[in-house]
Amino acid sequence: MSAATPDGPPSSQRPPPPTVESVLQMASRDPSAAVPLLPALPPDALADLLYSLSAASPPNHLSLLPALLSLSPTSAAASAAFSSLLNAPSWPSPTLLAVASLLRDLPAPFRSNVPDCLAKILSLLPRAEAQDLPALAYQLLLLASKPLHPRAVLAGLLRFFGGHHGARMRAPPSIARQVEGTVLMHIAFAVKQDPALAREIVAAVKADAVGALNGFAVAVLLSVARVRRFNDGAVGVLRDAATTSRRDYQMSRRCKWLPDRLKEECAKATHSVEKALLKAVDDSIGGREHVVPSIVQVGFLLLEASDGDRGEEDGSDEGVMSTEEVGVNMLKSLFEIHQMARTEIIEQCKFRILSAKPQQSAPVLRLIGCLVQSHPFPMLEYVAHLKELLDFFAFMNDKVSTGLINCSLPLTKFNHDLKDYIILVVRKAMFKREDAVRIAATNAIVELIVTESKYRKNDANPFQDSSSQASSSQQPEIHREVCGDLFQELSGLLRRCLSQQASVKEALYKGLIRIVTFDPVVADNVLDFLWPHFLNYYAEDAECPLKINSCFKVESATVCIVEPLDCLLSCVSCILRVQQNSKCPRPRDAYWKCFGFAPSQDNEVGRSSSRDLFVRALSNIQKYLRKCLTEDQREQTQEAGSVSSTLEMAHCYNIAMPGIIEVFVDFAASKLEEGADEPKEKLEKEILELVDAHSGFEKKTSKSREKIVRRRGDPSGSIDKQTNESKENPNASWLKLHEKKGKFVNSSLYELAVMCVKHCDADKYDKCSQRPSQSKFYQCSTLLSFVLKACLEMFKSHTAKQSEPTIGNLRTMLYEDVKRLGQPIVKLVWWLILDSKQENGGFKKNMTQGTRTVQNKRDQLYLALRCFKELFKQSVSEDRSSDIIDLLISSAPSNIEDIMKADQLPDNDATMTEDPEKRGARVFLNILKMLYARALSQSLLLESEALTELIFGISRKLHPEQRHLIGHWAAGLCRQKTVQSPSAAQAVVKLAVDLMTAPDDMILVHEMTTELKKLIASGDEDSRDSSEAFLIVNIKTKNSLAALFLHMVESSLIELDWGLGKLKAMLMSGYGSSNVDDDQPAEERIQKVYLEEALYSRSTSVVHVLSSFTHMSLKDSQAEQFLKLTAKFYKLLARMSKSQIAPKGYRQFIPGLKFQKLAEVTCRMLTAPLYDFVCSLQENQQAYKKVVLARIKRESKCIPDLIFQVEDYEKYLIQLSKLTKVNLLRHAKRSVVRDFRIQPKDKAGGEECEGDTTTAGAASPESDPNEGVEDSADAPAETNADEDLQASAQCDDAVKDSESDEEEEILTRRKRSKTNQIVQDSESDQEAEGE
């Protein structure tokens, strides 16, 4: 009989010890139940269990890994487990989820494997199942909040869900959208629980080297922005991304040295940002409404950031939108999609219009205009907000108030209450004192009437096709009555404008022309409105019917304008012409019928209409001008007009009469167009006489202005030679009015241009047949100048109209008018070109007025070229530049090819000849080349300036290779043409350099600076007057060319600064992502190599150019600018060298050959001669110390900063040489040590000589410090103790502004400068360093 054991159950009832198989079976059912069994396993079993884990293991088995590792297994077993996982080519989705969930539970000794596992997970995300991605992202967010590598986790999620490198989830678009929404919800929840993740998200987006956002990253940032503490940072990142991408795009188009591949990447990045921002708006519906407030905020931030967004390079934007356009499109789409966001958008618009500056309000007004045009019915709900804005009409800027009215007017078609409110607001504004407010109110009334007439016409159009004749005839009548009723209603308010200042009257007259143009039916009412006012300045029975003296008044010895009489006459003339050409005549009593009664017949008997009265008045004035405006009777005209005899009043009379004459020239030209009963010869004779009188009054104006200036005792600088205007003109306001008139109708101006072409052809025939008549020649020349000035004024006004946001049909109409007028203008251009060519022969000698005639011809050629430039500018804005080019070529004479061959123009561009579409551009450029070469030969400065702009304009439309050919042609002009004018020489050189491609542009600059160095070399007494290689470089142009080359260097430094910033971002991104995704930086590494090579090559070219300036004796300002630019360049070189040094923990690479060459060329060609330049500059300062003390103080600030930047650059070269074992300073020359000691001022007198010699030795470029001290002993004394103290302080300031990372060296210099108080060499410190 066996006895039982008292301490435990029988052996048959004990559980068996756990084994590997039992533990795995338990883990398959419940991993949490299997974990307590692990400590009972022996060490060998634990190792076997770790060896059994792999990527193919079930997820429950893998969940045992943290518990196994916490039992301190052998290192071989742990390494085998991780190696088995990482070496697997792919993981199934459950394995991905299991590994992601266990990483945060790994024991501390094994967390070094987390980065490798994390990189493996992120690389396998595209292979995961779509339904597992939200859970996988959630586990990764838990890992990031641990925190374990949060930056890498968040960057990987943003790249994957954003489609980085083409990564896409394996799911249909609808499923993918749901997955992204779930992940966004997880991120938003994680950010609220752990605010540190928000900072990491913002930092991860900022660290993106490409600079391009994706739609998922934008959605994440918008979600983060809902957290108040991170709102500014998140929306700021989105704003900066949009503005930076736009700036990078513009800079990439500006940098000719940048490879085309990088330019394409910049354009791609800009498009990516635009699409991402707009996609975030489209995706904000259906579960993402929480980001709507953030979208509103970002949209308005982009509107605010639009100042200066567009530049000259915008002509080749290739579909890239500005930040303003992106913001407007975002808010417009949001307004359409989300009804809950509309109130917030309108409230923000109202707040910004009332609080922002006028320039910042313009984008907001454009947004309101887009909303009104695209969504008028939803905007009707916010009329109350518009009324609140209109309450501040009288207190706004005139442009803002006018823009607000224009935006609100389309809504008056659907809301009559808004129209009544606008009328009420404008009535109040009419009683304000400010002229700008009254002008804005006048324009608002005009726009209201014009808008009303447009809508009435559109409403009447459907009834015009009705089958009922009665209804068809009645509907237009109803329209006329209502529209006329609105004008009658507001006529009292408009009548108040007639008692305002001249500027208000001018705005009224222009507005009345617009009203009648859009609705000719109201012409009679407008004439009735103007006739009583016109009688104040018209006397029918007087000898001179115009009361010109009533148009001015003298207040406090200043002549003031009361009435712009020429504007009034122009307004009446245009209204009569529109009424005459109108096809819908209107009975006189139509407006009386709307009140239910008709005027009595007795009142109408014997009463002439206002139209007849105005026609009679204009006829009387025209007869008077025919009779009196002759060369012998102009002085009597002034007396007959009862004008005051004072000099100021006579001057105003002479200014007013040309405008009045222009009105009647336009009136006579309109008769030519209409084919009036009067013979054409008589009308043309009348026009010639009026134009002759116009020229005479312009001459009188110039003479009277000079008399006024002499009487005031300021004969020195009152006349501007270019504009022929007084610098301090007492009648400046009248002149401004006179400049803005534009009294010619397009059709009349066309008739004048055709008439001018006919007379020019007749004059040319007379020259060939017999000796021309002096009177005919003078009249033809006067008419030509008159027509060209009028056309130029009209082209400029059309350019201003096209710059405004006008309707497409209106832009097309304006362009068609300009194109029609371009035909005779092009003929005039050709006539002047050929006539100027004949002038080189015997034409100038045969004329009795040789010099004066030639000057007139030059002025006319300049005006013609400016007209053609404006024509080409408008055609480019409409993308129809080929129209103007074809027009010029079709109007060319038959022997144009012979003319160009005679000028020996090279034509090496075979591609343009083969392409028929580009042949026109080739011929056009050859014509411009011929004119430009001729203008330079004849020293026609203004003409060459206009031709330069034309060549630049057409060259921007060409391929870079074709522009390069034009640049080579301009470089040939620099070599062959002798130009004495500094401005013309700058234009030619700039044309050549800007059109040439890199690196030929900087090679040309280097060659020209080398020749320039021979002319202004320091210490060269036998300098020549002109260069042999480049004739354009001579003694008269050397200073201006030196300034131009320094400006080009400055532009290159700006480009290099931007390129270096892009390179630094790529390097930081490569360092930050190399441990996460090994494949990610591969494409960016290729871009980095391209950018580095281009950057270092361009920097080498800049070194060559700057080295030439070190041998020149520059002027004070140019020397100071050269020192500043050189210091800035060395600062860029220091940043380049610093970027080559790898951070700690990363592999250090050997610098490329381009960088090594840059360091060699800089040390050999720039650094060593630079010290000599500084030394010679200081010697010149000592020689002229008392005369140019201010210059010495300015340059003493530049020199310490320059020396510090040089030494800072060499310091980084030394560090890089030690790390890479490559001697980058083998061509460098060490300068002497610049350590200083300061002594009290009472000892300064005894040691003045010692302190003076120290500064001279400080700039010595010798390699041996002792030799430098000996050489400096013979140098002249430079500065006293006070100036040395100031130089030492400036040196300290330069140290503070540097980017040096070694603070010990900076602190050492500061301590030395504080403990001693006079500048002298520290020989003991030199010996210590030598030891």
Automatic annotation (TrEMBL):
Residues 1264-1273, 1322-1331 have a biased composition (Acidic residues). GO terms for molecular function: DNA polymerase binding. Residues 90-192, 291-446, 1005-1241 form the FANCI solenoid domain. SUPFAM superfamilies: ARM repeat. Residues 7-19 have a biased composition (Pro residues). Residues 1-23, 698-731, 1242-1331 are annotated as: Disordered. It comes from the Eukaryota. It holds the Pfam family FANCI_HD1. Residues 197-276, 464-701 form the FANCI helical domain. This is Fanconi anemia group I protein. It comes from Brachypodium distachyon. The lineage of its organism: Eukaryota, Viridiplantae, Streptophyta, Embryophyta, Tracheophyta.
